[in-house]
Amino acid sequence: MKRLLIVDDDLEIAKRLAALLEDRYEVIRATTGFEALEQLEHGPFDLVLLDLRMPGLDGQGFLSEMRRRNETTPVVVLSADPNVARVARGMGVDYRQKPFDVEELEQLIERRVGF
Predict the structure, then answer these.
(1) Strands across the sheet with 26-30, in order?
(2) Peptide bond before 55: cis, by omega within 30 degrees of 0?
(3) Residue 1 near residue 25 (C-beta atoms within 8 A)
(4) Phi and psi based region of residue 96 (left: phi greater than 0; alpha: psi -120 to 50; beta: remaining)
(5) Which residue, 50, 54, 55, 79, has fewest beta-carbon neighbours within 10 Å?
(6) What is the spatial distance between Cα 55 and Cα 46, in angstroms, rounded to a whole number?
(7) In Å, how far from its chain's centre is CA 97?
(8) pLDDT tens track, the chain, 115 positions
(9) DSSP for the chain?
(10) Are the beta carbons of 31 and 8 closer than 8 angstroms?
């Protein structure tokens, strides 16, 4: 089963995403960049769904550290801030604005994980 890591400090969004995806994927959640880095130690993921604006180690910091560790897992940034799209493109990752279209997000995930 493909593994997804949801990294978002908004517990409601993380729960909704997990409920949407857990019938097809193994879903692991983290609420900070630090928790997400710990999860990377427990095995590979097929995709990371990442919020950029979080307390502590934010999404950009997490992504930088992930890349420094030579992790090549695909990342989709989810953010309510439309200005983040430019930042995400600059980091070489996909971006979807919150609130996101569920079907569109599901299709993007399927394309990225090869489902």
Answers:
(1) 26-30, 3-7, 47-50, 75-79, 94-97
(2) no
(3) yes
(4) beta
(5) 55
(6) 25
(7) 13
(8) 999 999 999 999 999 999 999 999 999 999 999 999 999 999 899 999 999 888 888 888 999 999 999 888 999 999 888 888 888 888 889 999 888 899 999 999 999 998 6
(9) --EEEEE-S-HHHHHHHHHHHTTTSEEEEESSHHHHHHHHTT---SEEEE-S--SSS-HHHHHHHHHHTT----EEEEES-TTHHHHHHHTT-EEEESSPPHHHHHHHHHHHHT-
(10) yes
Question: Which amino acid type is present at position 37?
Answer: L
Exposed (0-12), middle (13-18) or buried (19+): which is 57, by Cβ within 10 Å? middle
SS (H, E, C) 49-69: EECCCCCCCCHHHHHHHHHHC
CA 6 vs CA 13, 35, 62, 67, 103: distances in Å:
10, 11, 12, 17, 17
pTM beyond cutoff 0.85: yes
- Among 13, 36, 25, smallest CA distance to 106 is for 25
